[in-house]
């Protein structure tokens, strides 16, 4: 059967019948001990009970918040919604006494008729949200009752809305991407093909299930294929990163991945003895979906875990975003990552070929080739004219994985999802807002349009400055900095916000660290750093997928400039609601 004629509901029903006893999901509550399992038949039965319950209560066709922490019950509820024709809206569950502003904004924008939560979370969320959302009802998952046989089924069309996936908000207010059942099936088939997944594949994951990389990449993909998946909560990884690679070693996982920072953190927080105890020879696809993927991250991790059997060819750089369901491009599985030097300061759209900049020092990592049924165009963002290979422009994406648009935002949907090139008239394309180039048929991401810092007429990518800064002093954490532009007296200057290591937070000479950052950036980029903000380990603002929230970092730098007027300060910055995991537990 063609994947476009089916839905994920059809897939689960098929697996429940064809391999009813096979375990689908295993949950490690603390990242080490098994605390729950779901066979495909058990998951199918539980989804039917929840679907019947939702239908009896009149929620078919409505939007419902999924306020459930990572775990098997999240999967039960999500599939129950899909069975019933309820549109789930996955969202982070704020801790008690934390800001609810983001959650309230999502609930309002999504026109949520209800929220599914566990009793303990409902106890504090319901009264806190009642004033802003008096008409939203609450559905307690602990109280679900019924029999799976009561569910009579529901016809689901491929173009029906499957879920609202809210963007992680790295550059602005979160927006709800309308993902259809056809979008899901197209993207899941693309991932299977691009990663060469089979019935012998096995996933391990810790990424949050309310975010697209965790939800679609780690949960829906194995469900689509009918293969096992081992999950743990993200906080278990953050507390002890060794738990991630231990699980891969123990369960002989073939597929697992994360953003740049997680690979770097795992290197930083594991000992030689811990690595020696691992066997990572089974790990075939170590996907990294950061934008851009860092060559330094690949080198550090591959070198550190080579004694455990990790192969450099297992690294799988890829590119994706919620607006295209998840996956857009990926490398050829089992090949060496493509890395080449590139001068970002002179290779803006319209400049000479990148190969002429071979001595500039920056390294770009290839994020692979377009997935089946996906079209890529590199376009001048101003003129909308397509650009030749090797020239930087905005990445435009077309194909069956591109969502139906932003919910209740027709103008933004037209601008972002329905673009056409000026020279050829091709389209519609999704405008990603990401800058990159094509080289040998492969996509290379250089940064985001909104993040570029322009100083004296020259473009500077913040990622370049961040890599230079972190390499300037060993007391600076890897992959934990942000470079932003500060406007002052009609000129742009540079501010660096960077985490210290645990040791650095205790005993670093802050003045020396600041001086090293300034000296390194001046020497390599010819730029003056007007402000350095050194922050506590684990406190750099990040989105739910681990991307740096540069807008929040800019606000930090601006606020401190106004408050102190000093050129260097040290902050103990609390994690915001958009940081990867809402936890007060520091990384061990």
Structural write-up:
- This protein is an alpha/beta fold.
- Among the domains are: 339-451, Roll (Luciferase, domain 3), CATH 2.30.38.10; 455-571, ANL, C-terminal domain (GMP Synthetase, Chain A, domain 3, 2-Layer Sandwich), CATH 3.30.300.30.
- Helix content is 32%, strand content 24%.
- The protein contains 17 helices and 27 strands.
- The strands form eight sheets. It has a five-stranded mixed sheet with strand order 11-12-13-14-17, covered by helices on one side. It has a four-stranded mixed sheet with strand order 2-1-10-9, with helices on both faces.
- The longest helix has 17 residues, at 40-56.
- The radius of gyration is 23 Å and the shape is globular.
- It starts with 7 loop residues before the first helix and ends in a 17-residue tail after the last strand.
């Amino acid at each position: 059967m063609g994947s476009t004629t089916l839905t994920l509901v059809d897939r689960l029903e098929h697996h429940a019948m064809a391999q009813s006893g096979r375990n689908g999901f295993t949950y490690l509550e603390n990242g080490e001990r098994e605390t729950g399992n779901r066979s495909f038949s058990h998951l199918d039965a539980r989804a039917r009970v929840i679907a019947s319950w939702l239908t009896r209560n009149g929620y078919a066709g409505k939007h419902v918040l999924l306020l459930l922490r990572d775990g098997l019950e999240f999967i039960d509820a999500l599939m129950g919604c899909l069975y019933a024709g309820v549109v789930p809206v996955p969202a982070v569950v704020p801790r008690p006494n934390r800001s609810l502003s983001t959650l309230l904004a999502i609930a309002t924008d999504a026109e949520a008729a209800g929220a599914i939560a566990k009793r303990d979370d409902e106890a504090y969320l319901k009264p806190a949200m009642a004033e802003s959302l008096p008409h939203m009802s609450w559905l307690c998952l602990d109280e679900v009752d019924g029999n799976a046989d009561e569910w009579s089924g529901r016809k689901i069309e491929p173009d029906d809305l499957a879920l609202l996936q809210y963007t992680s908000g790295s550059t602005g207010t979160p927006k709800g991407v309308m993902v259809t059942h056809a979008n899901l099936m197209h993207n899941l088939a693309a991932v299977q093909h691009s990663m060469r997944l089979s019935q012998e594949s096995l996933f391990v994951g810790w990424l949050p299930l309310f975010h697209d990389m965790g939800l679609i990449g780690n949960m829906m993909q194995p469900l689509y294929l009918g293969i096992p998946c081992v999950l743990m909560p993200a906080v278990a990884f953050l507390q002890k990163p060794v738990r991630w690679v231990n699980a891969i070693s123990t369960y002989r996982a073939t597929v697992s991945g994360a953003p740049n920072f997680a690979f770097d953190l795992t290197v930083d927080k594991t000992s030689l003895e811990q690595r020696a105890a691992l066997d990572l020879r089974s790990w075939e696809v170590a996907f990294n979906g950061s934008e851009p993927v860092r060559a330094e991250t690949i080198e550090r991790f591959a070198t550190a875990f080579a004694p455990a059997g990790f192969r450099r060819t297992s690294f799988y750089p890829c590119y994706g975003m919620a607006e295209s369901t998840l996956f857009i491009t990926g490398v050829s599985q089992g090949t060496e990552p493509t890395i080449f030097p590139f001068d970002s300061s002179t290779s803006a759209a319209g400049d000479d070929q990148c190969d002429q900049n071979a001595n500039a020092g920056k390294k770009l990592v290839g994020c692979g080739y377009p997935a089946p049924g996906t079209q890529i165009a590199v376009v001048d963002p101003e003129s909308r004219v397509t650009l030749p290979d090797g020239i930087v422009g905005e990445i435009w994406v077309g194909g069956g994985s591109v969502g139906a648009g932003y919910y209740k935002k027709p103008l933004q949907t037209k601008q972002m999802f329905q673009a056409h090139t000026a020279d050829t008239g091709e389209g519609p394309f999704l405008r990603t807002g990401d800058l990159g180039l094509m080289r040998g048929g492969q996509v290379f991401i250089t940064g985001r349009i909104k993040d570029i810092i322009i100083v004296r007429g020259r473009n500077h990518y913040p990622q370049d400055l961040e890599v230079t800064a972190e390499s300037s002093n060993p007391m600076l954490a890897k992959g934990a900095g942000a470079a932003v532009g500060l406007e002052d007296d009609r000129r742009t200057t540079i501010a660096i916000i960077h985490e210290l290591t645990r040791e650095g937070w205790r005993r670093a000479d802050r003045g020396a660290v600041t001086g090293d950052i300034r000296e390194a950036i001046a020497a390599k980029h010819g730029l003056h750093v007007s402000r350095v903000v050194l922050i506590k380990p684990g406190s750099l603002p990040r989105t739910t997928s681990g991307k740096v929230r540069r807008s929040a970092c800019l606000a930090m730098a601006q606020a401190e400039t106004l408050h102190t007027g000093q050129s260097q300060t040290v902050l103990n910055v609390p994690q915001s609601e958009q940081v990867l995991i809402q936890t007060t537990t520091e990384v061990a």
